[in-house]
Amino acid sequence: NMLLIINIGVSFNLTLAYADTVGTIDFKYLEYDDCIEISAFIGNEKIVEIPQYIAGKKVTIIGKNSFSDNKEIENVMITNISLPSTLNKIGMGAFYGCTALESIIIPEGIEEIPPLCFGVNWSLKSITLPSSLKSIGEDAIYGMSQLDCIIIPDSVARIEASAFAFTDINGNKTIVFICSKDSYAAGFASE
Description:
Structural class: mainly beta
Mean pLDDT: 82
Number of helices: 1
Helix content: under 10%
Distance between the termini: 52 Å
Largest sheet: 7 strands, mixed
């Protein structure tokens, strides 16, 4: 185990620590004064439940590339990830390349699906977006050959042009947006 404490300024403490076991799942995380950021998944489970609390603090952030680009889990085929209701931010590329992931529910409180968040998730059949969502970033949800439709909440006011670059084995894919007629998503889909 490793513990690194960095003091920045007068009132901000950041602790990087390995969580040996949180429930039955292994994570690396950053501990702030009032919350926890998951920085990496280091377990080998196919079904992952991210807890609401670690070390008595709310888990509010899934960090950049926390489930991707991680050589420690290179051969792990995660099929299901359960996100905590305490979450308020997901980092860029957080679930990029989780090719066995079949479905995910994004909890209320999340306002942005950042760039590359769910890229190259070939098995993803269902993604539930929260009514708190305001924007969907570049290449945020792409490369999902199994996803046929998605409900876009009326709260979404920005969708980057390449947010939904869907492809199948032949290089093309049609996706059905389920949204209000006068919503931003309807205008985006008709372009």
